[in-house]
Structures are given as structure tokens and as C-alpha cells.
Amino acid sequence: MSISLEQMKWMYATMVKIRYYEETMVTAYAEGKSPVFNIGAGPVPGEMHLAAGQEPAAVGICAHLRKEDTVTAPHRPHHHAIAKGVDLKRMTAEIFGKQSGLGKGKGGHMHLFDPEVKFSCGGIVAAGIPHAVGAALAAKMKKKDWVAVAFVGEGAANSGAFHESLNLAAVWKLPLIVVIEDNAYGISVPKKVSTAVASNVERAKGYGIPGFSVRDNDPREMYQISEQAVRHARNGEGPVLIEIETYRYLGHFQGDPELYREKNELNKLHEKDPVIRLKSLLESEGVVASDIAQLEAQVRKEVDEAYDFARKSEYPTIEEALLDVFE
């Protein structure tokens, strides 16, 4: 399937929005945390996992989803949330712990939840897959052509929840798509020393379901394979697994010294930056530089407005913070 120019523009704009959002969060998160790194200090306390570099995984499949389709995300969720259409202002306010946030400041970065677009973030490794199975089962029982997409890291593919969920989805022929984002590291452990198979697509065969592999973080290939996967699931043909070879430009968490990185690894990865590659594709399709710049300016404006909204929002009072907790 070829990508229409409008879809390509949406993908590029969304990838730029994700990248700029994550780069802005790097600065916001660092506030008040030096000279000695203090995870609890600053306007954004707690652990922070950012997804700069992993944009194709989220954008490629969300281009084919509807509002009624469910997406579950792991502890690195911002790119999934943005691609699914989560309210950016309320999402940012939630990360800042503000009353105007998606969960009124109670969930934070690793527990984002927006029922308006059927998005949730489990936080714990592989926790979102059973939720997606439940959403897929609900869609089938209601005789709807909705699909459920569970994003996980390659490390989560070694967990029991991953295998139990795939088995059940295959047995019940549920409209589930599991997207494994293989960014080469489970925290600081390379995949090659933690996983017995080179590609998790091999594991799909064990459950009798289709498995697809996307190499080299390619946004166009992710879009095309995702179209096949979504069509397969939406037509009632059962679950699908996609594994995309992707790259995170930042550490496992902000403050990660990244001593496990190989020499010059990041320089090599940046040479294959998916945002730059998609921009080059737009240019080859005849989109002029001024139009591309306008797309970039618009999404950056949205991100800036979201951060401004979050900073100006109020923290919950003690009474508000306790509301719904003990009821």
C-alpha cells in the first residue's frame, strides 16, 4: 500500500510533535534536579522515560486507527499518546501533577489515561497487554470492528503476561495487535544477551498468528505493514504481532548515565534519524520547504501551548488530591 501525501504529512507533523515534546520535556524535567540528581525535585518529579527516536512505531500504526480503537502503552508512553490523539494540554498537566491533568494529577507520566480516545498506560512491564486483550474481547462480544493495540518493549516479550495474552488472543481469535518496540536494550541489558530468539516474530509462529518485522526504524515500512495488520484484525481474522527495530536517543530514564552504550552508537543512530528521513521523502514528493516549515511551526506551537498550560495550572488541594482515593 502506498502512502497518500496527506497521510505522509500527518505522519511527519506528528513525528515532529513527538520529538519536540520529548526534547522540551528533557529541559522541564531537569529543572531543580542538579547539581546532585534528585528524582523527587523540580516541577516534574519521579522517573521519566522518553521516546525520542521511536516515533515510527507509534505513528505508523496510529495512522490506521479510529477513535474507537484501543491503545495501551508501557512506561515510555508519550509517542503513543500523541499519535493516538490524547489531549496534549491535559496530558502535560498530568505529568506535572496538576489538577487539570487527565487523572487530576494522581497518575503522572507512567499512568496516563484518556477514555475519550481509548488510551491507557499500564506503566509496569507488559501490564498493558492483558488490558488490550480485554478491549479486543469486548469489541468481539459487541460485534464491533474495533481493534486493540498493545505497545510493549522487547524486554516485555520475555514476560508471562506477553505469552499468556498472545495465547488467549489466538485461541479466541481476538482483534489484537501487539507492537514490540525493539530498541535493543531492556533498561541496560542488550537484547542479544537476554532473549533466546533474534526476532520475536518467531514467537508469533508458536501461537499460530502472523508476525511482521520492520527493520531499521523505517516509518514508511511501519505504515505499510501496520495497514495489513489492522485490516487483518479488523476483518475478524485474529491477532497479529509486529516487531519494529527502533532506537531511543535518550537513556532508559532521564539521569541514566548510559555506560552500556557502545562507542559512537548514538552518532550512528542519528545518521538514520526517522524524522529527517520522512522529511526527505516529503521533499522528494514535491512538498516545498515553506509548507514543511509551516507544518513544523504549527505542531511546535501546540507543544509550547501545552507546556504553558501545564505550568500555569494549579496543583490539587489536599481535599482534591484525596477525592476519589478512599471512596
From TrEMBL:
Protein name: Pyruvate dehydrogenase (Acetyl-transferring) E1 component subunit alpha
Transmembrane segments: none
Domain Dehydrogenase E1 component residue range list: 46-318
GO MF entries: pyruvate dehydrogenase (acetyl-transferring) activity
Keyword set includes Oxidoreductase: yes
PANTHER family given in the database record: PYRUVATE DEHYDROGENASE E1 COMPONENT SUBUNIT ALPHA, PYRUVATE DEHYDROGENASE E1 COMPONENT, ALPHA SUBUNIT BACTERIAL AND ORGANELLAR
UniProt keyword annotation of Lipoprotein present: no
Pfam family name, one: E1_dh
CDD domains in the cross-refs: TPP_E1_PDC_ADC_BCADC
